[in-house]
Amino acid sequence: MPYTVLVTVGSTRFDALVHAALRDDFLDAVRDVGGADTRVVVQYGQSAVSPPWRTEPVRSAGVAWERAAVRGVEVLLGAYVPELRPWLAQADLVVTHAGAGTLLEALRAPQRPRILAVPNGALMDDHQRELADALGADGYVLVGTPRALPAQVRAVAHAALAAFPAPAPHALDALLRAGP
């Protein structure tokens, strides 16, 4: 099974993150961390994508992708996936836009991939920054920027990240029963 990096921007547009994930220095960093058998899956949402290399169309897990081999890394590019969970199950590292749903799904993935949260400051008053910073302060994720992505990929590979707590579905019920 290849070392897999999932880069995801959800359903929005985050050109800076997508473009950073297609750069040679990012692919070199990923290969340095993952070794000879490395794959990068880029889910780019509404972002403008024009890879600087030739791609071929492929289907994987029912999704249409464009595939290329670049700098010793297999790269898959796709706009959307119907469900993120299967891709998270394969991921060793998730580089995400810091959306709440994506972050929580990645944090709760059974194999616990490392997470690099890259807030998209262009969205609604930079709301992703607050969540990413809080999760970073608690040690669950490393918070990054598109500009420093290669160095941050190397850093998150060696970071001591905390395990995210399991959901406690009965905690709210107990709190409500306890009353004021």
TrEMBL record:
GO biological processes: dolichol-linked oligosaccharide biosynthetic process
Compartments, as annotated in UniProt: Endoplasmic reticulum
Any Pfam family the entry gives: Glyco_tran_28_C
InterPro entries reported for this sequence: Alg13-like (IPR039042), Glyco_trans_28_C (IPR007235)
Primary enzyme class: transferase
Its job: Involved in protein N-glycosylation. Essential for the second step of the dolichol-linked oligosaccharide pathway.
Sequence similarity: Belongs to the glycosyltransferase 28 family.
Name of the protein in its database record: UDP-N-acetylglucosamine transferase subunit ALG13
Organism: Malassezia brasiliensis
Gene that this polypeptide is encoded by: ALG13
